[in-house]
Design brief:
Blueprint: E1 15-18, E2 24-29, H1 35-43, H2 47-54, H3 63-70, E3 77-84, E4 87-97, E5 110-117, H4 126-140, E6 145-150, H5 155-162, E7 168-173, E8 176-182, H6 187-209, E9 213-217, H7 226-236, E10 242-246, E11 255-257, E12 260-263, E13 275-278, H8 285-294, E14 299-302, H9 312-327, E15 331-333, E16 339-342, E17 349-352, E18 360-367, H10 370-382, E19 387-392, H11 401-410, E20 416-421, H12 427-438, E21 443-447, H13 468-477, E22 481-483, H14 486-498, E23 506-511, H15 514-526, E24 530-531, E25 535-536, H16 543-555, E26 561-566, E27 569-570, E28 576-577, H17 581-593, E29 600-604, H18 610-615, H19 629-632, H20 653-665, E30 693-694, H21 697-717, H22 731-742, E31 751-752, H23 755-763, E32 772-774, H24 778-788, E33 792-796, E34 810-814, H25 817-831, H26 834-837, E35 839-843, E36 849-858, E37 862-869, H27 872-877, E38 880-884, H28 889-897, H29 916-932, E39 936-946, E40 951-953, E41 956-960
Parallel strand pairs: 5-6, 9-10, 9-13, 10-12, 13-14, 14-15, 18-19, 18-20, 20-21, 21-22, 23-24, 23-25, 23-26, 26-29, 29-30
Antiparallel strand pairs: 1-2, 2-3, 3-4, 4-5, 6-8, 7-8, 11-12, 16-17, 16-19, 27-28, 31-41, 32-35, 33-34, 33-35, 36-37, 36-39, 37-38, 39-40, 39-41
Helix pairs in contact: 6-11, 8-9, 10-14, 11-12, 12-13, 14-21, 15-21, 16-17, 16-20, 24-25, 28-29
């Protein structure tokens, strides 16, 4: 029979999974070598659970039972086990049966399924996870239905089946509940699976970030060193739980280091340890991991280096580290990590090498680089930004950005998510999670190693053929705010964390420098914003003048956001004063607090203390999730700061001037009086939040522009649009045609269809392709033209000339036989022999704009729909837009408008606009084809000529292949590289 080392052993069924409580388990097929494990497992199951499994008292397994439950053919009889520490905690098996319920072989497509979970592990979601995996195995083996007999009192098992989301039938027969489950995945079963995945992965992160006790392994007895530094930082941050130092050189008895109990091992502590920080040389890490795993540690942060970043030997050491940690049910941050921080008042965890933990705030920060993590922490600290949590994952061997997106999605202490990523291990999953998170709070990403052409050292990720530009476009479609530098990451994070989202692109600009105002105006135009005319308060403006002008701008209904520019002002004696930044900051914050919720950013030049004062909130407030009033219709803000009642130096003339200008620009109503602590009528109060300050206009405007675009995405995400539905689509006929074209033994590398087959396939989805007839000589060219009708086009199809009219391989508007013959002679004389050129003749179509439509499937990213204009210029500039499939009508409309050359479609420089509605329909039909039939792995339509009415597809290629694996539709599993 099969053992784990036999070739027939289905190793691809093995998987590491995260359970409901955040711990991990390994699922694998049961083999003949598992007899002792099975007996030991069964002995630890209660009599009640045994009764529920066998419907009778069954105190022990007989030798025959053990043989039956460990010998499988992995086709008609399959058994899976969930293991922790190498020992069974649960089992599941199925036996194929016929219509009479007796053992059978294929083609019988039904199987009887049964579970047994150790009592100590019930309630952890083990059975639900096993059901996902055994169902996937059954589908692979041609089984379409599960049958199960369950005692009515076994409510937990009944719930496992009924909550799975599969279509099912339920009846009561002979004293038991008979359940039949259709194993075909449904929208409900996929939703259930993803909801469970979310809860489990979020919980696994929570266990790492909020431990009740922490042990630092590798704490030296002398000051200094990584372990001692982490322990010192942990204590200095005021960690609320229990802390322990571990150093194997301490001997048997307990000692003390930095005032905390010190032991030689985790086992010697004698109390539960939730989190272990490992800071020992790499060769000693396995010993430390085993010590943790054997004594119930829930998670690890491995600071030790010399893993995958050091080469092939280190990569194998890293794989073994992950396998070892998961075998004990532990999740792992690192190796080569910088550490983690949680500023929550009831945790105060600084298990990192950062000596100065950031203040508590609303930003969650994840970085794959320790050096970048240090820089980001320093930059955020200097600018007064607070963090909720910080993670520097190092080599990201286990816990990744996806896990933290799962956690931050529902974390009430995090309003903004910032990520520095050097690789995306699962782009399809990351895009899905980012879209869901971005619908609730901003996700800002800066991606390193975009152009290096290689994976950063230490990061093992699946290979994708999709260019980074395409991945970036798909992330933007998912609502991710992509920025180019870590400076822009901080800039955007500060604005999004401290200010409401703008309701639109209209920006008011005010300040005491006309030149700085004009620079800000130009920057707004460059970023696609709609700036209003800058308001110059003159260099004599006082803080009270700024306050009055800002209040007026925020009350202006024609304004969605305000940028305040400030330089040192001129005093009464004409001397330039650097000014008191604290006073100006209080004035600006008072105006913002007493006004409608609109974002405010400040651009300042050499005003001492202004940035620091603006960034210091007057009080710490735990807010509800910050919502854009334009999105939710409400503005849950806390009471505002009271205004300052200081009279402006030099009289109120500047304040009145500012109010008058904004009154004229507004809706004609009376401008509000300068605030003195009250609230404008009909506007909820805003919290005393930080106002971000920037040393350059371009940086402030860029951050504001990202907030504007994100706010627009949030509003549109509420109505994502509809997938195209067309009565003339022949889905069953297309499926039959694809099956015939692929044949009984399809080439796994794929097959490119002939022109005739491609035209037939596309035609079944309402995509007609204009025929192109071969013309191997002049006579056959003339005959082809007679069949098609004049005028015609003559063009080459040689790969080096295809779709390159700029190289002279196309002759258009040939009205008769004489012109065609002359064009044929010129073409072959200048470019080569007919056998090399492979010329074709095609009927002329109405003139318009030449475009390209493509769709492709990548195993890591998914199905992608692409659009651009045809021609070398667009290809050279990379002017192509992308959307994930299935595309909606909103996606199709945005796809056309998101390329830089889009004006050519809408009547640029007096030209007639083309039929964009027909083009959008074509995009939706291509999207439907690829989504309905995953065997269609590539489609290319080029050129597609879009006229004023209608369009013409002049060339098409289609590639078929066996459907690529969908890692997002299978059972939950942790990545294994």
């Amino acid at each position: 029979m099969t053992t784990a080392s036999d070739p027939a052993y289905p190793a691809h069924w093995e998987a590491d999974v995260v359970l409901r409580d955040g711990g991990t388990a390994r699922i694998r097929p049961i083999t003949t070598e598992d007899a002792e494990r099975l007996v030991s497992f069964y002995e630890q199951v209660s009599d009640e659970s045994k009764y529920y499994r066998f419907f009778a008292p069954y105190p022990r397994l007989s030798a025959k039972d053990v043989h039956r439950f460990t010998h499988h053919d992995y086709v008609d009889r399959v058994g899976l086990a969930a293991t922790v520490g190498g020992e069974f905690i649960a089992t599941v098996r199925f036996d194929r049966i016929n219509a009479q319920g007796r053992p059978a072989s294929a083609p019988a497509d039904e199987a009887e399924v049964a579970f047994l979970v150790q009592d100590a592990h019930q309630g952890r979601g083990v059975a639900s996870t096993l059901l996902e995996h055994i169902a996937a195995v059954a589908r692979e083996r041609g089984i379409r239905r599960f049958a199960a007999e369950v005692l009515p009192a076994n409510s937990k098992m009944i719930k496992v089946f009924t909550d799975a989301g599969y279509q099912q039938k339920r009846s009561f027969e002979d004293g038991s509940v008979h359940l039949t489950l259709d194993l075909e995945p449904t929208a409900e079963s996929l939703a259930v699976q993803r909801a469970r995945e979310h809860r489990a992965e979020a919980r696994s992160v929570q266990r790492l970030l909020a431990p009740g006790s922490v042990a630092v392994i590798g704490t030296g007895r002398a000051p200094g060193g990584v372990g001692r530094t982490v322990l010192r930082n942990l204590l200095d941050a005021g960690f609320t739980g229990r802390a322990y130092a571990v150093n194997r050189a301490l001997g048997d008895g307990p000692g003390e280091l930095d005032g905390v109990p010190a032991f030689s091992s985790v086992g010697a502590i004698g109390e539960p340890v939730d989190l272990a920080i490992i800071a020992v040389p790499a060769e000693r890490v396995p010993e430390a991991v085993a010590d943790c795993g054997e004594h119930g540690v829930q998670g690890l942060v491995v600071l030790s280096a010399d893993y995958a970043e050091s080469g092939p030997h280190g990569r194998e050491r890293q794989r073994e580290l992950v396998r070892q940690a998961r075998s004990y049910g532990m999740r792992l941050i690192g190796p080569n990590a910088f550490g983690i921080i949680n500023t929550a008042a009831d945790v105060r965890l600084n298990a990192s090498l950062a000596p100065e933990p950031p203040p508590a705030g609303r930003i969650g920060l994840f970085t794959q680089s320790g050096a970048i993590g240090i820089a980001l922490l320093s930059g955020l600290y200097r600018r007064g930004a607070g963090l909720s949590t910080f993670i520097s994952s190092g080599n990201r061997a286990d816990v990744s950005g996806n896990d933290f997106l799962q956690y931050w999605y529902e974390d009430p202490d995090t309003d903004v998510v910032l990520l520095y990523l050097e690789s995306i291990g699962n782009p399809r999953k990351f895009t899905r999670l980012a879209r869901r998170t971005a619908a609730a709070k901003p996700v800002v990403v800066v991606k390193g190693a975009r152009h290096s052409g290689s994976t950063p050292p230490g990061h093992a990720v699946p290979v994708t053929r999709v260019p980074d530009a395409t991945v970036s476009a798909l992330l933007r479609q998912a609502g991710v705010i992509l920025v180019g530098t870590v400076t822009e990451l901080v800039d955007a994070g500060l604005l999004l964390a401290g200010q409401p989202l703008p309701a639109g692109p209209r920006v008011a600009i005010l300040g005491n420098s006309e030149s700085l105002g004009l620079l800000t105006y130009d920057a707004c135009l460059s970023e696609g914003l709609r700036p209003l005319k800058p308001l110059d308060l003159t260099t004599g403006a006082t803080p009270a003048d700024f306050r009055a002008a800002l209040a007026a701008a925020l009350a202006d209904e024609e304004c969605d956001a305000v940028v305040v520019t400030a330089i040192p002002w001129v005093g009464e004696n004409g001397a330039v004063e650097s000014g008191d930044g604290q006073v100006l900051a209080e004035a600006l914050r008072a105006a913002a607090a007493a006004s409608p919720a609109k974002p405010v950013a400040v651009v300042h030049v050499e005003i001492g203390g202004l940035a620091e004062a603006l960034s210091a909130a007057a009080r710490t407030v735990k807010r509800p999730s910050r919502q854009d009033p334009a999105l939710a219709g409400t503005n849950p803000q806390d009471p505002a700061l009271s205004g300052i009642n200081q009279a402006p130096r030099g009289g109120p003339s500047l304040a009145r001037k500012a109010l008058g200008e904004f009154e004229e620009r507004g809706s004609g109503g009376r401008a509000p009086s300068p605030p003195t602590g009250g609230q404008p009528k009909n506007h909820p109060p805003r919290e005393a939040t930080r106002i971000p300050a920037y040393p350059a206009a371009e940086r402030a405007v860029r951050a504001l522009a990202e907030a504007v675009r994100y706010g627009q995405w949030r509003r549109q995400a509420a109505d994502p649009g509809r997938v195209g539905e067309y009565d003339d689509i022949d889905e069953p006929g297309t499926a039959a045609l694809i099956e015939r074209l692929l044949g009984p033994a399809p080439d796994p590398r794929g097959t490119t269809l002939t022109a005739a087959d491609a035209e037939e396939l596309l035609g079944r989805y309402g995509i007609p392709v204009r025929p192109a007839l071969p013309a191997p000589d002049a006579a056959q060219a003339v005959e082809a033209a007679r069949r098609l009708g004049y005028p015609v086009a003559l063009k080459t199809t040689a790969p080096h000339l295809r779709h390159r009219p700029d190289l002279g391989g196309v002759r258009l508007d040939l009205a008769d036989e004489h012109q065609l013959a002359r064009a044929y002679a010129e073409l072959t004389a200048s470019l080569g022999k007919p056998g090399e050129l492979k010329p074709v003749v095609q009927a002329m179509v109405p003139r318009g704009v030449d475009t390209v439509v493509r769709a492709s499937i990548d195993s890591a990213v998914g199905a992608v729909l692409s659009f651009g204009l045809a021609g070398a210029a667009s290809e050279l500039l990379g002017d192509t837009a992308h959307r994930l499939i299935p595309a909606t009508d909103r996606d199709a409309a945005e796809l056309l408008r998101s390329i830089r050359t889009a004006p050519l479609l809408f009547g640029w420089r007096g030209s007639a606009p083309v039929d964009t509605a027909a083009l959008e329909e074509l995009l939706l039909r291509v999207s439907r084809l690829v989504d309905d039939h995953p065997e269609v792995v590539a489609v290319g339509l080029e050129p597609v000529i879009v006229a004023q009415r209608g369009l013409s597809v002049l060339g098409a290629h289609v590639r078929l292949a066996p459907p690529p694996a969908r890692n997002d539709l299978g059972p939950r599993r942790l990545p294994s590289y």
